[in-house]
Specification:
mainly alpha; Aldehyde Ferredoxin Oxidoreductase Protein, subunit A, domain 2; 2 domains; two-stranded antiparallel sheet; 13 helices; 1% strand
């Protein structure tokens, strides 16, 4: 996100940007996305150098990139608004900048392809914390991811485990036998609890969506040149997702029967069921 996403090919400059982002404690994905959004808005003439505190923030420009990273970290000048993410920037800049504000629920996307992957599209659209590429592309994968997170183990380390090893470790630690069904159902319970919180706070089906760019702007290079997400097809995929989840397909509200089956009937009052 700090390299190819910004058209930065200077390896030393790229490593300096990465170092600074790490040193400041910023997120690589969100920071790279914010910088790319600002570069595109600047290129299109939606903002000028005055908006950027005099920076000539063009694609591939390492010095301006590093200076803006510092501004974001210190919330200095233009960096104050930029620190709030691309959604807030798009709201301020207006025009049609929301079409290339690459975020879901205010969370910036990572550099995974969406145009040719409906699974990745579902992953980004339905993640409870917004556009998380680690979320999983279907309910079962999401349930397992939620449960894996509960163990506190690194997801990269888990990738080297044989099937069932994590459940065996959990059984040894807790003294209780964790079957595959127990494991997934607990993950489903967690995922539904997260969804209930989001729904209570006002998130609805229309928030489980993707940036317009993926539906309107086909890929221009590579073996998948011309590929674009079809809105009608994506809508049907989402209908099936909500049905599988046991949620209302119009609002995304978790259904009473599903919540009761997970022992979550105590949260029904939180969402007016």
């Amino acid at each position: 996100m700090l390299g190819a996403n910004l058209l930065i090919s200077d390896l030393e400059g790229l490593m300096k940007a990465i170092y600074d982002v790490d040193d400041y404690g910023l997120d690589q994905i969100s920071t790279g996305n914010v910088l790319g959004f600002l570069m595109e808005a600047y290129e299109k003439g939606y903002i000028d150098s005055a908006f950027l505190d005099g920076l000539d923030l063009k694609w591939g420009d390492v010095p301006s990139t590093i200076k803006m990273i510092g501004k974001i970290a210190r919330r200095e000048g233009a960096g104050d608004l930029a620190s709030k993410g691309v959604r807030k920037l798009a709201e301020k800049i207006g025009q049609d900048s929301q079409k290339f504000a690459i975020e879901v629920k205010g969370h910036e996307l990572a550099g995974w392809n969406v145009h040719v992957s409906t699974g990745r599209a579902v992953c980004y659209a339905t993640a409870n914390r917004g556009a998380c590429y680690l979320n999983g592309s279907n309910p079962r994968a999401q349930n397992n991811t939620a449960m894996n997170d509960c163990t506190g183990l690194c997801m990269f380390a888990q990738g080297g485990f044989r099937a069932g090893l994590l459940r065996e470790l959990l059984s040894s630690i807790t003294g209780e036998v964790w079957t595959e069904e127990d494991y997934e159902k607990t993950g489903e319970r967690v995922y539904n609890l997260e969804k209930v919180i989001n729904y209570r706070e006002g998130f609805r089906r229309e928030d489980d969506n993707l940036p317009d760019r993926f539906f309107e702007e086909p890929l221009t290079v590579g073996p998948k040149k011309g590929a674009v997400l079809n809105r009608d097809e994506f809508s049907k995929i989402m209908d099936n997702y909500y049905k599988e989840r046991g949620w209302d397909i119009k609002t995304s509200k978790p259904g009473p029967e599903k919540l009761k089956s997970l022992g979550l009937e105590f949260v029904l009052k939180e969402i007016g069921s």
